Amino acid sequence: MLIIIDPLVGVFIEENEGETRNISFKENKPNSVIKVAPYKKDKLNEPVVKRTDKHGFILGPGEKSTDKIDFIFLGSSTVENENVRENKRYPYLSIENLNQKLQTNYISRNAGVGGNLISNSNLSLTVKIVDLNPKYIVLSSSLIDILYLSKNESYWTGSKKLVESSKPGISLLKSLKELLFPNLWLQARKFIASGDISDFQGSQFSPKDKHRILSHYEKQLDVFINTCQIYNIKPILMTDYYIPELIRNNLIRKKIFNSEEANYYVQTLIPSINNIIETKSRLHKIPLIRLNELVEKNELYINSEDGVHLTNLGNEKVSKIISTFLVQHLAYEKN
Predict the structure, then answer these.
(1) Measuring CA to CA, which residue among 186, 224, 214 is closest to residue 26?
(2) What is the phi/psi pair of residue 109, to 5°?
(3) What residues does 75 pair with on adjacent strands?
(4) Measured between alpha carbons, how far is 335 from 326 in angstroms, rounded to an integer?
(5) For residue 267, what is the enclosing H or E element?
(6) Residue 305 burial (CB count, 10 A)
(7) Which of 211, 116, 203, 112 is nearest to 155 (CA)?
(8) Which residue positions in the chain have pLDDT lower than 50?
(9) What does pTM read for this prediction?
């Protein structure tokens, strides 16, 4: 602390450097190689590998960094699929299938990041994706958003808000942690079933505040669509695949919702947000992949512990659906 005398007013003034604030930008670390535990259902005896390129996008087998990207898949952990074999993750496999069907050489990248909301994805879109000028961006982000907004007032509050204060001591500790124990959370979280569960427990907010929740989501979806169109990128929307009863049981088991709230989330909120996505698709004439309708409810496709994360088999199924849709859409664009 420094005490000075202001010559104009002749009084003591306590100097304060102020508060440091940062934009919270979450991505997979560029040029990383991480080993992650597979889903128990897949019965693998060894970890799966998650490799990233220089942009922090997840690579498929044999892929290397490039600035020429045709398709980018954007969203949270349901897009990231880190517990899935790298040759099965649908952002890679669906475009591999497409290339085989059309004899093309499209390049895709997986920009999914576990825990990211659509607000985080929009930041990623602005900060690093638009500069790469991909042809298409496929967005799949809804279930985690309405869950977060059920327990937090808005995208600007809670642990996932975009602006956060930084204290010098804490910043130094974070830097030391990254230096001494790089990727500590990535290594540890595979042993923690709840993930960021504290974001969703013990809140004054409720999933029944439907208007507030859907209003916040709709505005962020508009940001995504408008940003893509401004930069001449073609957006493609995609609804999330899920199994209602597994989601409901998981929310109750982890004490995120009581039984009544869990039923409302599954029976009212999810159909309502899908309706918003449908409406935006029609209004802006944007392609829409309805995974929630096109993929049958099969527990072999999904992680039974949560009802939303795809298994290896689920990724294979979804990849076929996406590639078939894109074959038809690309043919339609040519006509």
Answers:
(1) 186
(2) -140, 145
(3) 112, 140
(4) 14
(5) none
(6) 16
(7) 116
(8) 177, 181, 183-195
(9) 0.87
Domain boundaries, the chain: 21-334
Structure tokens given for 253: 């088991």
pLDDT (0 to 100) of residue 14: 74
The vertex-143 CA angle with 195 and 112, nearest 5°, equals: 65
- In tens, the pLDDT along 133-151 reads 999 999 999 999 999 999 9
- The pLDDT value recorded for residue 12 is 61
What tokens appear for 225 in the block?
């669509």
Structure tokens at 319: 């990849």
**Per-residue pLDDT, 162:** 84
Contacts of 255 (CB under 8 A, 6+ apart): 201
CB atoms inside a 10 Å sphere around CB 244 = 16
Rg (CA), the chain: 22
CATH class for domain 21-334?
Answer: alpha beta
Are the beta carbons of 69 and 92 closer than 8 angstroms? Answer: no
